Amino acid sequence: MRVTSSWPSGRSGESTIEYQTSRARFSPCFRSSCDLFNKAFTHIADKIDTVYKDLTKGNNAPTGGVAYLSLEDSDVSLISKELPSCAANS
């Protein structure tokens, strides 16, 4: 995952200082959220295929099905304040 940031143009004086202060305070929180998301995503992605295979084993499919987890959009903007979403595929 890549965290990106961009500086809006057209800000002046006091609003730029307020923006920079708010951004500086928010960035560690956002990065922490991204780190936690990445840890959870990696854990789930590592386990989902094995769990799905166990759940779908049967006479018609003795080895079970196949499942994986992928990111829908790996680019995240600090300005949008959105965490990435993911989709399970089977």
Structural account:
This protein is α+β, with helices and mostly antiparallel strands and 90 residues long. The protein has one domain. The chain has one helix and four strands; from the N terminus they run E-H-E-E-E. It has a two-stranded parallel sheet with strand order 1-3. It starts with a strand and ends with a strand. The N terminus is likely disordered.
On the 0-100 scale, what is the average pLDDT?
A: 75
**Whole-number total of structural domains:** 1
- Specify Rg, calculated over alpha carbons: 20 Å
**Distance between the amino and carboxyl termini:** 22 Å
- Approximate shape: rod-shaped
Tell me which oligomeric state these chains represent.
Answer: single chain
How would a textbook summarize the main sheet?
2 strands, parallel
Protein structure class: alpha+beta
Which spans have pLDDT < 50 for at least 5 consecutive residues?
Answer: 1-7
Number of helices: 1
Task: Order the strands across the largest sheet as they lie in space.
Answer: 1-3
Number of DSSP strands? 4
Give the key terms.
alpha+beta; two-stranded parallel sheet; two-stranded antiparallel ribbon; 16% strand; disordered N terminus
